[in-house]
Amino acid sequence: IMRFKGVLVFVLLGALTAYYVYSPIPNNIEERWKLMLADSFFRSLSQLAELSDRMGLLHYMKVMMFITIAERVVPVSDDRVQVSDENFDGVEVIVYQPTQQQETGELRRAIIYLHGGGWCLGSSRMGPYDLLARHMVTELNAVIVSVEYRLAPAYHFPAQFEDVYHVVKFIFRVDVLKGYHINPERIAVSGDSAGGNLAAAVAQQLQKDPEQHIQLKVQALLYPVLQALDLNTPSYQQNQHMPILPRTLMVRFWSEYFTSDKSFLRAMMANRHNNHESAALLKFVNWSSYLPDSYRQTYNYSAPPVVTGKSSVHSIGPHHLLADPRASPLLVPDTALRLLPKAYVLTCEYDVLRDDGLMYVTRLRNAGVDVTHEHYPGGFHGALMFITWPTDFEIGHRMMDNFVSWLKQNL
Questions:
Q1: CA distance 342 to 364
Q2: Which residues are catalytic?
Q3: Are 119 and 147 in contact (CB under 8 A)?
Q4: CB–CB of 264/318 below 8 Å?
Q5: What does the mean pLDDT of the chain come to?
Q6: CB-CB neighbours of 183 under 10 Å
Q7: Are 330 and 284 in contact (CB under 8 A)?
Q8: What CA–CA distance (Å, rounded) separates 129 from 51?
Q9: Which run of H or of E encompasses 378?
Q10: 329-386, pLDDT tens digit by residue?
Q11: How far apart are CA 44 and CA 33, in angstroms?
Q12: If 0-12 CB within 10 Å is exposed, 13-18 middle and 19+ buried, where does residue 395 land?
């Protein structure tokens, strides 16, 4: 009997391990087993966070912050890069700049970088972001300003956007540009995932600022999230169970960005969160109009339902924020796109946000904006974060190199 129990425990442990480690990952994703192992950790943490949240112990995002904490480093200066913690108009930033002073007096490029993490997680102090910043400094001889914007659930929209916007406006000050030897004609804003969302929103809002005389030269958006109206695009459907960012997690990020009201989360999960105000803007995210044929596959477009009535989620909830382009940059009319700076947009095939990026590429090009679109057929969301041990993926390094190469040629 004891031997039988031992075998049973072994089999159950094996089955549990197989359940967590093995997930249906497409064959053309590189280093599949490594991704399965990484994702098994993410899924385990997510389920622990869900349990903790339901039991009232810790908020879901508080548990998920373990990822941010685990990857945290202390950015320090070295022989090539000078690092300093600064405060730009009340917002914490990390400034990376070349240690060697310019002998010719030539001014430097600058990149304002915004980390990802669904507006709830992440930090400029995570190892991969520190590595990326140093790489940009040495390859581009640039000043990198990495922004530590406030996070949900402690701070909801528009706090994150406002932090980033204040930083950009601060950098544009004449004394700041002079102090960091920045060329005002060679400034970029960039970010990945939620950071890409903030970068796109900032680029748009700067165009509308009548007092703003300095403009960005380029915007670089890495697998950005750009709209909250239709959470059932082909990429949301195709990749709903994909590693790192399944649909449920992305919807939870969106909901938490706006509010901690669980009824709003349930409405977004069902894609039944639109109201009359946001419904008028669905034309800007109609994927049947803006997605290239090859990405539509066999999916048929069905407009998200518009919910009316006096339920709490629509009467006192955050529904009015859905139509705000500072949250969803895809919602602006074409006239607001025409004067935007040159853009670099990275998308991944196995990413729920793929179609957000693809639709923005189409709309920007239709408006006459110069866009470089780099699509990774074997890419998955968050790959750029997988560039340090033990989750070191070749595709992450390739993305970083291609992104920095584009900046070198265009900034």
A1: 9
A2: 193, 351, 381
A3: no
A4: yes
A5: 92
A6: 16
A7: yes
A8: 30
A9: strand 371-380
A10: 999 999 999 999 999 999 999 999 999 999 999 999 999 999 999 999 999 999 999 9
A11: 17
A12: buried
CA 258 to mean position of chain CA atoms: 16
pTM: 0.94
Grouping H, G, I as helix, E, B as strand and the rest as coil, residue 268 is helix
Distance CA 368, CA 34 (A): 41
The tokens for 254 are 């969106």
Query: Rounded to 5 degrees, what are φ and ψ at 356?
Result: -60, -50
Written as six digits, the tokens of 184 are 């005002």
Rg (CA), the chain: 22
Give phi and psi for 220, each to the nearest 5: -125, 115
List the one residue out of 252, 279, 282 whose CA is nearest residue 268. 252
DSSP secondary structure, 81-117, as one string:
EEEEEEEETTEEEEEEEESSPPSS-PPEEEEEEE--S
Task: Tell me whether residue 108 is exposed, middle or buried, using C-beta atoms within 10 angstroms of its C-beta: 0 to 12, 13 to 18, 19 or more.
Answer: middle
**pLDDT tens profile 240-252:** 999 999 999 999 9
Cα–Cα distance for residue pair 246/117, rounded to 1 Å: 13
- pLDDT given at position 6: 55
DSSP secondary structure letter of residue 375:
E
Strand partners, 274: 306
- The residue written with tokens 């390094």 in the block is 397
DSSP 3-state assignment of 374?
A: strand
Give one word for 181, left, alpha or beta, with left for phi > 0 and alpha for psi -120 to 50.
Answer: left
